[in-house]
Amino acid sequence: MSDELEDLYQDIILDHHRKPRNRGQMESPTSVGEGFNPLCGDELTVFLKMDGDKVADVKFVGQGCAISQSSASLMTQRIKGKTISEVRTAIADIKELLVSEKEPPIAVQERVGDAIALKGVRKFPARVKCATLAWHALETALGGSGKVSTE
After folding, report:
1. Total domains, the chain
2. Which residues contact 5 (CB under 8 A, 6 or more apart)?
3. C-alpha distances in angstroms, 148 versus 83, 106, 126?
4. What's the pTM value of the predicted model, to 2 decimals?
5. What CATH number is attached to the domain comprising 117?
6. CA distance 79 to 100
7. CB contact at 8 A, 92 and 105
8. CA 87 to chain CA centroid, nearest Å
9. Rounded CA gap, 86 and 145, in Å?
10. Quick one: DSSP state of residue 82?
11. Radius of gyration of the chain measured on its C-alpha atoms
């Protein structure tokens, strides 16, 4: 990856950390997913408000490192207005982007949108859990409500 591209990705992560999108409590969510990373102490709660099969609104609260908070912000932008099927594809894409041993296909990299900025985390296995925490909490929220740990 070029230095310019890495700098751009770092800027996206820092921007979402400094100005998180969709951060805050939600009144009367349809479901809630809580995530905890015991390795570093990151905590996130994801709130979903569904309108039939679509995500009408999504918010998150929590505390943690820049990676976990930025990932949550990027996630909310990626899934708002999407169907459950599209959200499940987004979750699978992020997991492939961050966890797969092989370089993800171009189609996956294009589908993740700005969340491609998280790709550099692959180089730091301990930080992958930070980047995937919000997505695990989202997956839990899609199943109703519950808690998940990255361990």
Report:
1. 1
2. none
3. 22, 30, 17
4. 0.92
5. 3.90.1010.10
6. 22
7. no
8. 11
9. 19
10. -
11. 14
